[in-house]
Write a structure and sequence with these properties.
Elements (H helix, E strand, L loop, with lengths): L15 H11 L6 E10 L2 E10 L5 H18 L6 H8 L5 E4 L2 H9 L3 E5 L5 E4 L29 H11 L5 E8 L5 E8 L5 H13 L8 H9 L10 E3 L2 H8 L4 E5 L5 E4 L17 H31 L6 H10 L7 H21 L2 H21 L5 H15 L4 H38 L2 E2 L2 E2 L44 E2 L2 E2 L16
Antiparallel strand pairs: 1-2, 2-4, 3-5, 4-5, 6-7, 7-9, 8-10, 9-10, 11-12, 13-14
Helix pairs in contact: 5-8, 9-13, 9-14, 11-12, 11-13, 11-14
Length: 521
Amino acid sequence: MYDEQHRIDVEISKEIDKNIAVVDSLFENCGDMVKKTFTLRRGKTQLRIYLVYIDGLVNSEMVERTVLHPLMYEWRSIEEPRPFQNFLEEEIESVDIQKKDTMEDAVAGVLKGDTSIFVDGYDKVIILSSKSLPVRSIDQAPSEQGTRGARDGFNESIRTSTALLRRRIKDPKLKILQNQTGQRSRSEYAICYMEGMAKPELIEKIQRRMESFDIDALFDSGMLEHLLSGKWYSPFPLCQSTERPDKAASALLEGRVVIILDNSPEVLIVPVTFPMFFQAADDYYNQWWVASFARVLRFLAMVIAIGLPGFYVALTCFHTEVLPTELLLAISSARTAVTFPVLVEVLLMEFLFELLREAGIRLPGQMGNTIGVVGGLIVGQSAVDAHLVSTIVVIVVALAAIAAFCIPNEAFASAFRLMKFFLIIMGGIWGFYGFLLGMLVLAIHMSNLDSFGTPYMMPAVGGQAGQYDHIKDYVLRFPIRTMKKRPIYTEEGERVRLRSFAGKQTSAKEDVPEEKDSNQE
């Protein structure tokens, strides 16, 4: 939404010169504006027309074909004079034509890539849909690549993104509520959901939050995510972002809501739970035992990424007696020439690895990959040779860094990279007790989070969660034929998704006797 003070409360005048003056004042010093006045003469009849559009956002060839050609040639050739507005409705060769009463609508149409047509003696503006926006072609999602599944991904066009969802879900119950946000950017957004599956209170809550903030501009879904999340102090994402249309379509069929923001290649999915960040799209395209093995590896990688450095600091600083003698001697031998304490040693190495990671992201293409690999080898070996760190610390920090990359969601992995430093400091101050206290603080914090009313840690919390197949898509991914029901946040009566396979009928009554689902009939 944008503030009423930025609206242009000017009615369209029948005198075209007044309309031209208003448009010229609004778009003064705008070199990309195309403003053209035509005078049509037929005998003693004279008619002035004023066209306005933005060069680069409009298909100018379409404007010439659908507007200028009928005006310049066909209107002059008609024998019986007709009201010009009737002629526009009958002759302009375009389906998407609107008539508006205010200059606000005319300007908004021009800024979106449409063409506004003013006619002398006519107190309405004709808005012709002539968009030809500069957008990227549909390409594979670079941040969510997989071994199987579709290769297309969302791009910066909201209409392309909605079309990719429509291509996968050919059901009129797929609803798309479209509106604008941002006083200056007036960015379009779309709230997509399946009618009957998504809970109405969830849709209302999202709409209220979208209308609750007043901001100059929104340029990316990341900005929108921060405004929607509510709990700004939490490092954990409360919305799931994705560039894959198949992942978004799957979320819609689970009763969740997809939010698309124009100019952003990533869409947001709400509500979200902790296990969803460990799910990759190709988990459901591979055999269940392969997907389950990969899922277990990701959960193990999470534990290593967040806990291994802090656990190492706690053991070597305070609890060396629990280590085997051979391992303790190896650690002691590796640290013989190191002058820094273990805590400073680990923090220094972690800081160096984070610097390399950031440099690899910012540098273009292959150069970034080279910096990440070669820089890690050189810096690590040089730090060991200079007796700044020990070889075991390099191994621990490198293993934690590799484990963080195994988590499919970058925002979620970044939260664990940040919390890793918290656990290192806790382990360095209070040892194993401080490490466990830090883990307990994180567990309590995550248990208190919710995403639009859904517990963040479900199905680990929530007494009814196990009845709706959450546990079958948690650490292990069960076979598809056993995942008969949609999650608990789906509207009641629409929770059965697998009704039969190989000629065998299935029913929700097998698992939830007290629930009667309308889809069983």
